[in-house]
Design a protein that fits this description.
Helix content: 55-70%
Structural class: mainly alpha
Strand content: under 5%
Number of strands: 0
């Protein structure tokens, strides 16, 4: 070893590392450690945001719990309101659609079991039979029942129905209306008035003439509106398709014919039932 190097090493004092006296600034208690990768959520209550959260989770109010509590408080009224709202929505949808027309398939009307607007003879036939039975009941409660009188009641109702159909067919021919209305369709439309007649007579038996006039009046208004809406699509719609002017003479006759058929229904309803209620 070189003696000069040893002498230099022995003469040079050895340097010792002293710890730095500079202090690292302490982090505030609310500030996370910059060297920490994840937040310590165990002490969240000491950091200012550890207040109790709502039981719904994520700090939002539990609206489902409040709705359930409101429903349980008064379930009957809430169910009634929900049911009424659904009925109102369905009724509004039907009115908005305004779908009173009969559906067609290859120029042929769809069968009544596939279209609620298609005329069929089930309701008119059952209503006619029920009307005869109710008339016999009314005559029996007044001690006026007899087979001959019941037969007269049935034959007069059939005669008026046949007279109506013949008068409408003759009027359509004279006014030269090109429509797809058939004799069966007319019998079906005209037979719906027996439903209102049954209701009027039954209410007359239960509540007297006051109930009879109230129910029969409401049924008369209903059948009048029904006939206007139905025949208007059958008679006036064909005129519009043929290009007939709205204010033309022929179209005015078709409107008068529609109104006359609709107005005849309440008159016949009263004529065939007024003598059954006393």
């Amino acid at each position: 070893m070189n003696p000069a190097g040893l002498a230099a090493a022995a003469g040079t004092p050895r340097l010792r590392k002293w710890p730095s006296k500079r202090r690292t600034p302490a982090s505030p208690p609310d500030m996370a450690d910059p060297h920490q990768l994840f937040d310590d959520t165990s002490s969240a209550q000491n950091r200012g945001y550890g207040a109790q959260r709502a039981p719904g989770g994520l700090g939002y109010p539990n609206t489902s719990a409040s709705a359930q509590a409101a429903f349980l408080a008064d379930p009957v009224s809430n169910m009634a309101m929900a049911y009424g709202s659904s009925l109102a929505a369905q009724g509004k949808e039907l009115v908005d659609k305004n779908d009173w027309e009969v559906q067609y398939q290859q120029d042929t009307p769809v069968a009544p079991r596939f279209d609620v607007n298609a005329p069929d003879l089930y309701i008119p036939a059952m209503a006619f039979i029920t009307y005869i039975l109710v008339a016999g009941l009314a005559l029996g409660t007044q001690d006026r029942f007899s087979p001959d009188l019941l037969g007269l009641q049935a034959s007069s109702a059939l005669a008026w129905l046949a007279l109506e159909v013949l008068a409408i067919l003759l009027s359509l021919y004279l006014v030269t209306v090109n429509t797809d209305l058939t004799t069966i369709d007319l019998v079906a439309f005209l037979g719906y008035k027996y439903v209102g007649m049954i209701g009027g007579v039954l209410m007359g038996l239960l509540f007297g003439k006051t109930g009879y006039y109230l129910v029969l009046g409401w049924c008369c208004v209903s059948i009048f509106v029904f006939m206007i809406r139905t025949l208007r699509l059958k008679i006036l719609a064909e005129a519009a398709a043929e290009g007939v002017p709205v204010r033309g003479a022929r179209n005015q006759l078709r409107m008068y014919l529609t109104m006359a058929v609709a107005a005849a229904q309440p008159l016949l309803m009263y004529w065939l039932t007024f003598h059954l209620v006393r």
